[in-house]
Amino acid sequence: MKYRDTLLSPELSAERSKYVSLVKERISGTGVLAFIQTFGCQQNEADGERVAGMAVEMGYGLTSDPAAASLIVVNTCAVREHAEKKALSSVGQYKHCKKQNPDLIIAVCGCMASQEHRADELKTKYPYVDFTFGTSDLYMLPELLWKRLCGGKRMFLIPQDEPPVAEGIPVVRASTYRAWVSIMYGCNNFCSYCIVPYTRGRERSRCPDEVEKEVRGLIADGYRDITLLGQNVNSYGRDCSFDCNFAQLLARLSSIEGDYKLHFMTSHPKDATRELIDVMASSEHIARQFHLPAQSGSDRILKAMNRHYDLEKYLGIVDYIREKLPDAVLTSDIIVGFPGETEEDFEATLDMLRRVRYDMVYSFIYSPRKGTPAGRMDGQIPEEIKGERLRRLLDVQTEISNEANHRYAGRNIRVLCCGRSTNDPNMLEGRTEGNKIVLFEGPPELEGSFVNVEVTDTRPFALYGKKLK
Ligand code: 5AD
Ligand code: SF4
User: Fold this and answer.
1) 287, 263 Cβ separation under 8 angstroms
2) For the chain, what is the radius of gyration of the CA atoms?
3) Does residue 196's CB lie within 6 angstroms of at least one atom of ligand 2?
4) Distance between CA atoms of 428 and 405, rounded to whole angstroms?
5) What are the C-alpha distances in Å from 189 to residues 40, 83, 186?
6) pTM (two decimals)
7) How far apart, in Å, do the first and last CA atoms of the chain sit?
């Protein structure tokens, strides 16, 4: 497929601008506000920043108070049942806002709203929701909003089969020093447990020139931490005719001058290459951090998950990372209680944790997703067993994380100060290039700058330090 085939056409782009102007004219001078609430992963955060960008482009101010808003957009997640429940309960809470202000527009977008059965549910059971749109239809917000403002019918969009890449959507970033940059959208992997390929559609890569332009702009604006996002960044460029894979893109971006670190996520082990690890080792601008979700340590379960690698291949990548980047922070996602997971399979996962010695693991109880192959599999594991496995996994990993963090005791490290700690407002929170949390004392004005810190104490989930002069 040619890259330009996936780009939003100039006609649709012009139409989008027309709707932006129409809304802008309508609300001009009224001082109306928009409240945008985002759940879920970094990709969703990035989408939320685009929704905010379009709201501002149309003339809305932004508010963190839903009661003060004339437009509420709930940007939802669907990765586990809990995420969907949270999003639905949030939508439910805005019913009373609509009662107070009948002109309020309530929209729901994101992964949950991208599923047909959920869009139907929102239509029938949430009559105060004005419209929904999917992750790949973000650019349509101005049109949907305009039509509804003009008294049009409620709308519940079904995701497009081959959605376009819309460039030029404005962004309002939540931070002035950490930024998300989507390098691609969608997912082609169809891991058997995962809803994302159904909610985000097939892979579409952005053109490397566009990505570079955005990253250059961020560095020029003083951004220090830039995370390249994709469901599987390792397949970047495969859907297109431009000659650039992810390792090459990373090499190109990291050659930009400046004081910054590039991060990326997520990297599917089936496509992680030595070339990528070599590029990481060759540039100071690429953070020594590798999030490499294993999901399970059992070959039988990996096969049932449709992951396309086995433990041996996975450990081979880990060993190459350790050889080339001995200081790299290595993290993983693990699912416990996948259908058919036996005690022996689970033990294999624990053995893998002991062998790899991750810095941190994000562990999840398997949650059946409607429409996925695993949701229909026999051998669903009872909740008590899933819960018990999660606790055992956390026990094993907490000890490993503790040991991994202890290696930092007494070291001097450079961290990016991210403002006051939410848990302890007397302390500042910094992030190492591997994204470890470091708490230290200092003036809040340090937020957004790199600070040298001596690590004085370590815990399983954080480091403590003293700011160096
Ligand atoms: N149940 C539990 N965890 C899931 N994940 C994805 N789908 C599911 C599911 N159905 C986890 C995977 C993925 C992370 C983002 O969420 O570990 O890497
Ligand atoms: Fe992100 Fe997946 Fe949740 Fe969608 S379902 S918001 S892609 S974690």
Assistant:
1) yes
2) 23
3) yes
4) 19
5) 19, 21, 10
6) 0.95
7) 54
In 3D space, the residue among 391, 404, 413, 412 whose CA is nearest the CA of residue 459 turns out to be 404
Q: What is the DSSP letter of 268?
A: -
| Protein residue closest via CA to atom 7 of ligand 2 | 196
Can you tell me the distance from the alpha carbon of 32 to that of 26, in angstroms, rounded to the nearest whole number? 11
Tens digits of residue pLDDT in 349-380 = 999 999 999 999 999 999 999 999 999 999 99
Ligand 2 contacts CB of residue 109 (under 6 A): no
Distance CA 75, CA 83 (A): 11
Residues in Cβ contact with 69 at an 8 Å cutoff, skipping those fewer than 6 apart:
33, 34, 35, 63, 97, 104
Tell me, rounded to whole angstroms, the distance of Cα 95 from its chain centroid.
28
Identify the residue whose tokens are 């070959």.
Answer: 299
- For residue range 128-181, what is the model confidence (pLDDT) as tens digits? 999 999 998 999 999 999 999 999 999 999 887 778 899 999 999 999 999 999
Interval between CA 48 and ligand 1 midpoint (Å)? 21
Cα–Cα distance list, 30 to 26, 104, 152 (Å):
9, 14, 21
Task: Give CA–CA dist 151/128, Å, rounded.
Answer: 14
With 0-12 / 13-18 / 19 or more C-beta atoms within 10 angstroms meaning exposed / middle / buried, residue 423 is: exposed
Report which bound ligand comes closest to the CA of 295: 1
The protein residue whose alpha carbon is closest to atom 2 in ligand 2 is 79
Neighbour order of strands in the sheet with 329-336: 289-291, 329-336, 360-365
User: Which residue's entry shows tokens 């390249």?
Assistant: 228
Peptide bond between residue 266 and the one before it cis (omega within 30 degrees of 0):
yes
Which tens digit of pLDDT belongs to each residue from 326-350?
999 999 999 999 999 999 999 999 9
Q: What span, in angstroms and rounded, lies between the C-alpha atoms of 336 and 409?
A: 32
Q: Tell me the H-state helices in 377-440.
A: 383-406
Q: What is the DSSP letter of 359?
A: S
Contact 96, 61 (CB under 8 A): no
Rounded CA separation 186/257 (Å): 30
Distances (CA, A) of 64 to 37, 68, 177: 9, 8, 21
pLDDT of residue 242: 82
